[in-house]
Amino acid sequence: MKCPFCGHLETQVVETRVSEDADFIRRRRQCGACEKRFTTYERPDVNFPAIVKKDGRRIPYKRDKILESMNLALRKRPVSTEQVDAAIERMEEKILNLGMREVASTRLGELVMRELKKLDKVAYVRFASVYRSFEDLDDFKNLVDEVRS
Predict the structure, then answer these.
(1) How many domains does the chain have?
(2) Which among 6, 61, 99, 142 could bridge 48 via Cys, Cβ 3.0 to 4.6 Å?
(3) Average pLDDT, the chain
């Protein structure tokens, strides 16, 4: 595995862990040249359905895009990387279990909101306020009231 810091081709596995649900393997590696450590994840290669955008375009599913959106909503919130990874794993499992070749982006957005609601209420409100394109404060207030109850 090539070192992401210096590009050296020889790295050593320092620690290996299997996820709680045994869906992926997490490996801590150390570069033989610069001695910096980094993490890699090993998971099965599966074909996810295409994502159908609101305008009808079809794009490939990208885990990184989901992770980026969730991390933005979770910025400065007390949620671990492991919790976020587990939430994405649950969403991916649901998507694959649908058995469909295409999934609407709105359905994917709802899955993200459901997982964020479980992880952190503030992150849920942040994501929902952007995702649902609130027009005024009443929409925002209604969402906050929903979270409180």
Answers:
(1) 2
(2) 61
(3) 90
Between the CA of residue 21 and those of 25, 61, 117, what are the distances in Å? 10, 22, 21
User: Which 8-state DSSP code applies to residue 49?
Assistant: P
147 lies in a domain? no
Structure tokens at 86: 């587990």
16, 62: one domain: no
Split at pLDDT 50, 70, 90, the class of 143 is confident
Structural domain for 18, as ranges: 1-44
Whether residue 108 contacts residue 50, with contact meaning beta carbons closer than 8 Å, is answered with no
Q: The tokens 């209420």 sit on which residue?
A: 121
Q: Please name the residue that has the structure tokens 């909503």.
A: 73
Q: 26 forms bridges with which residues in the sheet? A: 17, 41
Q: Has residue 47 got a pLDDT over 90?
A: no
* Whether residues 36 and 58 fall in one domain: no
Mean pLDDT, residues 58-69: 94
CA distance 26 to 32: 19
